[in-house]
Design a protein that fits this description.
GMP Synthetase, Chain A, domain 3; globular; Rossmann fold; 26 strands; 30% helix; 5-stranded antiparallel β-sheet; 9-stranded mixed β-sheet; alpha/beta
C-alpha cells in the first residue's frame, strides 16, 4: 500500500513501457521511477522528511507526478493548490499546510508572492534551474519507514462556503480507491488513460493513481479541449476515459464527434453529477456504455458506483458502495432512514480521509462514529441502489416544502440548443424561495414555455421554475467543473424585481 513502491514495481516489470505521455514527450516507467528518486533525494537535501509538507502549484505535466511520488518515498505530505486561487487564497492554504517548500512553474509562480511575504518559502520552478539543481544527484537517499496509515496528501476543498479545508488522505486510502476503480473498469497495463482533469483536482489525482496502480499509460494534457480530446482518442487509441458529464457533452456537441473513431474506448466513466439519459443514449449509439460514480474528496474520489451494464436499468442511480465500503442514508441525528426516504449520504470504508488538516471542529462534524457525512442528500431504493438528490446547501424551501434543484435539472436535460443550465433558488415574497433556471444556449432561442412543457405534469406544481435567464457567458465553475451555485445565487438575488415570471 506504500505508493513509493508501486512505480518501482512497474519499473522492474515493464521498465521500457510508457508510463506518461505528455505531448511529444514520453517517460518510461524506468525513467519515471529514476526521476522520482532524484527528486526525493533533492528534497531530502533541502530538509524535507517524514511528515513534512510539500506544496504543489502546477498545471498538468509529468513533474507534478514526479514530485508526489518523491514525497511518497520520503513519507512527506503533498498539498496540491487550486490553480484558480487568488494570491490571498494561496497565502491561506500555503500557511495552513505549514510547509517550507513549494514546487511550481514559471507561469504560476507570481501567485505565491503574498505567501512568500508571510513565511519563508523555498520556491522551486520546474521551468528553471532550481528544478534542474534539485535533481542534480544520483537518486540516493535514506528512505524512512512509511506506514499505510501515514498521510500522503492534503487535498483542499474549493473554499466556496468559507476558508478551504484540507482533507488528509493516506497511502492506504488512495490504494483502496485506486484498486477499486481499476478492478471495476478492468483497467490494466495494456490500457491508455486520457486525463481530462487538472491533477491539482482530487479527481485528476485519482485518475493518475489508477494508471500508477494498474501500470497503464497516462496521457496528460495541459487542459481539456473537446476537439483535441477526440483527436487523441482516435489517434492514440485511448481505452479509458473518465470525466464529468459536461465534458462528455462538450465532446458530443463538437463538430468532429460524428466523424471521429472513438471505438477504442472500452471503459467510460462519469462522476460529479447524474448523467442525463439523452447523453447516455448518445454514447450508447456509438457503442459506449458509461459507468457512473458518486465521489468526493473526503473519500479519495471514490464512493458509490453504478456498473455500466445497469446504466439504463437504474437510470438516475449512482449505484452501490465500493468494494470494502458501506453507505447509508441518515437523518440529521445520524440514524439510518428506511429506503425511499431522503437523507444525508454517509460513507464508511478504508478510502475515507483521516480528517481535515488541523481542523478538529470540521473533522468532528464530518466524521462521526466512523461514518463520513457527505453533506449530500440522497435516497436508497429497495434493491440497495443509491440516488443523489442534491447538495443540502443547494436545496431551497418554497412555501415550507423542500425543492431539489437537481431534480428539475434532470427533467430539463436534453432540451435542444441548451449547452448548460443550472437551477437555483431566488427570493420570493410569498413562498420564501422559488426556482429559477439559468441557461446557456448555442444561439437557438429558449423561452419559458419550453421549460414549463418539460416540467408540467411530471414534477409537482410547487417545484415548477418561475424564472428563466438565458445568459451569454458560461456558468461559473470550479476546478472540478462543478457549477458555482453560490455565485449564481448572489448574481441573481434581485431577479424577481428585474424579470417577469414565466408562470
Amino acid at each position: 500500500m506504500i505508493w513509493g513502491d508501486t512505480v518501482a514495481y512497474w519499473a522492474r516489470w515493464q521498465g521500457d513501457a510508457v508510463a506518461i505521455r505528455f505531448g511529444d514527450r514520453e517517460l518510461t516507467w524506468r525513467e519515471l521511477s529514476s526521476r522520482a528518486d532524484r527528486v526525493a533525494a533533492g528534497l531530502a537535501q533541502l530538509g524535507v522528511g517524514h511528515g513534512d509538507r510539500v506544496g504543489l502549484l502546477m498545471s498538468n505535466r509529468p513533474e507534478f507526478i514526479e514530485v508526489y511520488l518523491a514525497a511518497a518515498r520520503l513519507g512527506a505530505i503533498v498539498a496540491p493548490f487550486n490553480l484558480r486561487f487568488t494570491p490571498h487564497e494561496l497565502a491561506f492554504v500555503v500557511d495552513n499546510a505549514d510547509g517550507d517548500v513549494v514546487v511550481t512553474e514559471s507561469a504560476l509562480a507570481a501567485g505565491l508572492s503574498l505567501a512568500a511575504e508571510q513565511r519563508a518559502l523555498t520556491v522551486i520552478d520546474v521551468d528553471g534551474d532550481s528544478y534542474t539543481d534539485l535533481m542534480a544527484n544520483d537518486g540516493t537517499f535514506a528512505p524512512p519507514h512509511v506506514d499505510p496509515d501515514d498521510p500522503w496528501f492534503i487535498c483542499f476543498t474549493s473554499g466556496t462556503t468559507g476558508d478551504p479545508k484540507g482533507a488528509v488522505l493516506t497511502h492506504q486510502s488512495w490504494f483502496y480507491a485506486s484498486m477499486v476503480r481499476a478492478l471495476q473498469g478492468g483497467i490494466n497495463r495494456n490500457d491508455s488513460i486520457l486525463l481530462p482533469f487538472p491533477l491539482a483536482f482530487t479527481g485528476g489525482l485519482a485518475l493518475s493513481m489508477v494508471a500508477l496502480w494498474s501500470g497503464a499509460t497516462l496521457v496528460l494534457e495541459p487542459a481539456f479541449e473537446p476537439g483535441r480530446a477526440l483527436h487523441l482518442i482516435e489517434t492514440q487509441r485511448i481505452t479509458v476515459f473518465m470525466a464529468v458529464p459536461t465534458l462528455f457533452q462538450m465532446m458530443s456537441l463538437h463538430p468532429n464527434f460524428a466523424a471521429t473513431d472513438i471505438s477504442s474506448i472500452r471503459c467510460a466513466s462519469s462522476g460529479g453529477a447524474t448523467v442525463p439519459v439523452p447523453l447516455l443514449r448518445t454514447y450508447l449509439d456509438r457503442g459506449i456504455t458509461m459507468t457512473q460514480t458518486y465521489s468526493l474528496t473526503e473519500v479519495s474520489a471514490s464512493g458509490i458506483t453504478l456498473p455500466y451494464h445497469q446504466s439504463m436499468e437504474k437510470v438516475g442511480s449512482c449505484g452501490v458502495p465500493a468494494m470494502h465500503s458501506q453507505a447509508r442514508i441518515c437523518d440529521p441525528d445520524g440514524n439510518e432512514v428506511p429506503p425511499g426516504n431522503v437523507g444525508e449520504i454517509c460513507i464508511k470504508g478504508p478510502e475515507v480521509m483521516q480528517g481535515y488538516w488541523r481542523n478538529p471542529e470540521a473533522t468532528a462534524a464530518t466524521l462521526r462514529n466512523g461514518w463520513c457525512h457527505t453533506g449530500d442528500l440522497g435516497t436508497m431504493d429497495a434493491d440497495g441502489y443509491f440516488y443523489v438528490v442534491d447538495r443540502s446547501k443547494d436545496m431551497l424551501i418554497s412555501g415550507g416544502l423542500n425543492v431539489y434543484p437537481a431534480e428539475i435539472e434532470r427533467q430539463l436535460s436534453g432540451i435542444e440548443g441548451v449547452v448548460e443550465l443550472a437551477v437555483i433558488g431566488v427570493p420570493d415574497e410569498r413562498w420564501g424561495e422559488t426556482p429559477a433556471v439559468i441557461a446557456v444556449t448555442d444561439g437557438r432561442p429558449l423561452d419559458g414555455r419550453a421549460v414549463l412543457d418539460r416540467c408540467e405534469g411530471v414534477i409537482a406544481d410547487f417545484k415548477l421554475p418561475r424564472y428563466l435567464v438565458v445568459r451569454d457567458t458560461p456558468l461559473p465553475r470550479n476546478m472540478s467543473n462543478k457549477v458555482l451555485k453560490a455565485e449564481l445565487r448572489a448574481e441573481y438575488a434581485d431577479l424577481p424585481t428585474t424579470s417577469e415570471p414565466i408562470r
